[in-house]
Design brief:
Elements (H helix, E strand, L loop, with lengths): L1 H5 L2 H30 L27 H16 L7 H10 L8 H6 L5 H19 L1 H10 L9 H14 L6 H14 L1 H5 L2 E4 L8 E4 L3 H5 L10 E4 L8 H4 L2 H12 L4 E5 L3 H15 L2 E7 L5 H17 L3 E6 L5 H4 L3 H6 L5 E5 L12 E5 L5 H11 L7 H7 L4 H18 L5 H11 L8 E4 L12 H15 L1 H7 L12 E6 L6 H12 L3 E5 H4 L6 H16 L2 E5 L14 H19 L3 E6 L7 H4 L4 E4 L5 H10 L13 H7 L4 H18 L5 H15 L19
Helix pairs in contact: 2-3, 2-4, 2-6, 2-8, 3-7, 6-7, 8-9, 13-14, 18-19, 20-21, 22-24, 26-27, 29-30, 31-32
Amino acid sequence: MTEQLRATPQQLAQLIRNRTRLEAAIVSLRLCVSVARRFGLGVDLQSAARPEAAGASGEVPATPPDALRSALRFARDHAEEMGVNWSNLPDWQAERLRLREPGDLHPVSRLAAVSGEPAWSALIVDLVLLAGLPELHEGYAALFRQLHPQGEPYPTVAMALHWTEDEARAGGAPATLYAARDAIEDLLVHSRLAHVGLLRLEGEGPWHCRTMRPGPGVWSALMARAPQGDGGDLLAGVRSVPGLAAWLAEPEVLRAAQALARGEPCMVALTGGNAAMRATRARALLGAAGATAIHAAIQPTDTPAARERAATDAYCCAFMHRAIPWLDLHSDGEPGTGWPRAPARRLQWDLPVLATAQTERALPDLRLPLLTLAVHGLPATARRALWSSLLPQMASHAGALAASYPIEPDEALDVAADLALRQQVEGRALELSDIGTCLRARTAWHARPGVTRVQPRADWNKLLLPQAGGEQLREAVRRVHQQMTVLDDWGFEQGRLERRGLRMLFYGPPGTGKTLAAEAMARALGVDMLVADIASLVSKWIGETEKNLAAVFELAERARALLVFDEADALFGQRTESNDAHDRYANLETAFLLQRLERYEGVAILTTNLRSSLDSAFTRRFEFIVEFPEPDLAARLGLWRLHLPSSAPLAPGVDLDQLAQWYAITGAQIKNATLAAAFLAAASGNAISQQHFLQAIEREYDKAGKAHPGFPPQRAETTPYPH
């Protein structure tokens, strides 16, 4: 033990491997003795096979083929390379037991202690090493192929039985034959060794005909290596995670870390948030506990049996690697259906377990004391500190970045690396827009029916609003940027989460620029815009509308986007008296929306044609209500000029003042008319003329189902296009 404590990690790993090879060599040589005797060979493997020699059970074994003789000679030679031969085998057998002193760090000692019965310890180690010999060298795999009835490269239970029986006879104790057989059956079928899965039986038929294989992570632990994909991934904790220092200092988190560090049998569960948030906090918690974990991802499509197997594999691997099983659950299955009860009763979990899940109902019932830690996004103050530490050159904008981008530590580190590379390649100072670009590239977009992602291109110059409306939009952007100062530094949040987000109502006739204004706001904030189609979200099935809406909000939170509910009248309309079940559930949908809007930390915009059609409960919760009236004469003239590029060829006689004065149409109709006029002119091979504009405007009236007011007086004699 002293030698182990003084060794470096690399030296300790080599010590563990050497000792495993030594113990395996002793086991292999003992196996060779048994096989040689059973097949009538001399223990030196030099004499020819003697068919007349009787086996242990009285039968006359067949002459072994040359391949078996060669495989046995390999096993003998391999053992002798480790210093173990026929003559000193008893001495080595005694030495290997002496090596298992109290406090021994070798994984063999973990095996020896698994049963709790000292008399079985040596037998357990022998069986596991026997099953693991093919993992040590391909020569042992060749030996077992010669002995296995189906030619598999692993030993059968029968081989272990014959071995123990032969050694019992050699020791002059025939009365113990059945005792040894019973002991092996108890160990392989009924003991904790089997329940934990440290040694597994595979195949069909009676138990003694099955194949023995080491459980997940067993042999990798014996060879001081990370598990190779069996049982889970060996993950170390992260001692310093930017942005999580305050979370790790919370009393409940400190208690959980201490429980994991002491190895107390308990389950520490991280619930809520998304998978990335839970994983980041789990690694930080492991780092605070100074522990490693075996990470097992359990998918929603896994059957209860598959979940039990994954949990057992993770436990087996963690037990051997002195780690903590981390059950990463991606499902909300009920405990009684998603998880069988068997593992909780049978495994007798004596290790601390780390579990991560969306909800508590997805957690397995392991009959362990439970410590639950709710996972939430980083608070705004932590996000500001995170941005300041990672991007010191942007420290003056850290508050605005924290409000616009509710980012997680891992994402922030990736973005900081992306920005450093961009700065190095492009050789220029970073701009705020670069952060949004890098975040957009890093954000996984999961398309969902009814939701459109828009990368904003419109800016304030594209908007022609009354001065009051335009100023409200700019004030809303400033409010987002100043949230940190007012809510956190000045203490105005006061525990009310609804003050964190921003809710706005845009109302006005169709085509007056409501969606365009939302796009301009998104660009000013440096985020994408998600436009939700209300018609595809509303369902006739009870509860489905709420699920659809929840998914939209979650998508917007992951994308860090400005969320727009376009034409929201149907969904956000007036609540009614509960005259029937349909009315009651419609009112429940409205109540759900109210709660979800208040919890949304981003910018949510509702657009409607009629302000009066919305429920008053919604209008009370809007920080800004912006009117988008139909454009007046000056606004219409500005829109005509805005939508005509300077490169567009205009024929003499085009009079935009006349079009603005004569036709009271919306901004969207003006945009459509300018584009249609351009295509008409291109088709005729001429510049865009007044006639092309008049023809395009008439079509806009037809599309809207409105009466055309006619043509300007000076052109009344001209027919814009054939009717």
